[in-house]
Amino acid sequence: MGELFTFFGLISHDKTFIYVTHMLLSAGLALMIAKMAMANLQIVPTGAQNIMEAYINGVLKMGTDVMGKENARRYVALIATIGLFVGIANLVGVVPGFEAPTGFLEMPLTLALTVFVYYNFEGIRRQGLFKYFKHFLGPVWWLYWLMFPIEIVSHFSRLVSLSFRLFGNVKGDDMFLMVILMLAPWLLPMIPFALLTFMAFLQAFIFMMLTTVYIGSAVAIEEH
Fold this sequence. Notes:
Layout: H1 15-38, H2 47-67, H3 69-92, H4 106-127, H5 129-134, H6 144-183, H7 190-219
């Protein structure tokens, strides 16, 4: 099965070039949307500012439910940025002539590594090294020897969960779109396009939600 046609592919068919150009395009669009929302801030928001404030409030509410209001406000910028970037990157692949950079394993894996390193860093910074890793031992002292390696494996498995879930779903959507365009390139794809748009938002939300849960669990160990 051939590759999807991309406009950037007219310049070069190199996989790295295709990935980097689409990733930069997604980042540029995210920055442009943020700049539009902040270009003319008003007390009563309208247009892009209204949409962005609704999005930020939604992220803040989700974070409050998971980690409390104080921590949600602390990490809302990071979580909202990840959600916006991943969402736009997913949506880019829905547009004919472009390919989602999240359909390349490099981007989901890089984002997953970033989240993994960050939430562990925050856990150690907020709780202290000894206290942070102490919760890996579990509540029963005579099961420490068993719980610690299980917890370590569990945390590293989050890398696979975050990266391969996003990559697999987006790559599957790309293949599905390619088959549809090959079989019925005109009228029929309208329904799949709507479905793929929904899936783009859904995968971004899942990635953002898991990031929130991982950060929340790392900085709120005392409450467990």
